[in-house]
Amino acid sequence: MILTSLSLYLYRLPLDRFLPVGKQRIDHRTGLVLQAKATADDEVCDTEKFNIEVADSEVTEGEVKESNVEIAPLSGFDIDQQPLSGFSRESLDEVQQALTTLLPKLQGQHIDSLLEQAEASPYPSIAFGLSLLHAKLSGKLNALRPLTTAVPLIYQPIDAPKAELMAKIAKLDSSVHSVKVKVAQTSMEDELSLIYGILSQRPDLRLRLDANRGFSLEQALDFAACLPLDSIEYIEEPCQQPQENQTLYRAIPLPYAFDESLNDPDYQFVRHEGLTALVIKPMLLGSIEKLQRLIDEAHSHGVRCILSSSLESSLGINDLAHLAAILTPDEIPGLDTLAAFSQDLIVPSGKPQCLKPHQLKLVVSTQQD
Ligand SMILES: O=C(O)CCC(=O)c1ccccc1C(=O)O
Ligand SMILES: [Mg+2]
């Protein structure tokens, strides 16, 4: 297939409530939508020769394929105007500029050039976006049903009453077996009482805790000593110093997971005692091929891989649900981050409004009118 047109749009979605990014909070999300049209190799000449835009009604099904992907590095500023730290290293501006230069070069090329450019890009969000676009255009993403269940995310909202949390627990479907709970955010007493509160309502639940590197070793030891270990699946990034996670594990057998550690550009998989899972955020890591290599390596050492949201819009979350069905079919992904979004983007998820590309700001388009 040949790429016949590429367009880049900018979105900015306000959030109805703050979303946690580690210890920080955001009140809006910005990102890019990359739209590509492609035709089968032998059809491109006709359209080019006559320089006509092929309307959907004039072509047989499947002749012109159109796909959209979200490219939204998790960087920018929090509600206190502090730069977000610990997630994407690239800024939205850098990504926008790189794509503005790249898109005209992709125009007229075979879709496989998306994969070459994905591997060549220094920006993980671009590498992921281009490889995803390739997968969508070539129909690879729709081969399987998406994983429609996600692990509910429970966190103490500073802008909403605490009772809402327990109401969310009470409403959980009985088919939900795991929930993710943010810890190392407020006081240990409050967080332990939340954990025991959840389990008193739903003793069958298993908890995935996420400390976002919020504890000193001493705090982590104190906290872990008070946990109902049998009900804890794992804790993400317990210690400020990741090398202390093993010390913690040797003292208290609480399995842990890596999340922020994977964002280090030099990260290489190494089996550590007590390391039970990798929390994989594709937008922060890179191409699907790179994700697949990491997952294969982790699985070969018996380490689980959980695909997780980088707070994408409904477009990105929907693609992650499809990708999870392919890359990690035996795991429930961590994608419960859409509730705070005021609107959907391109793919409906049940919000009153769903923005379409023409309602977004066009950054660049290779299509000549
Ligand atoms: O992993 C999940 O279930 C939801 C996603 C999530 O928690 C998250 C989303 C964006 C940035 C950081 C994190 C995090 O794991 O702390
Ligand atoms: Mg995490």
TrEMBL record:
Keywords: Lyase, Magnesium, Menaquinone biosynthesis, Metal-binding. Mg(2+) binds at residues 210, 236, 259. Residues 163-255 form the Mandelate racemase/muconate lactonizing enzyme C-terminal domain. The active site is at 182 (proton donor), 281 (proton acceptor). GO terms for molecular function: O-succinylbenzoate synthase activity. SMART domains: MR_MLE. Its cofactor is a divalent metal cation. This is o-succinylbenzoate synthase. It comes from Shewanella cutis. The gene is menC.
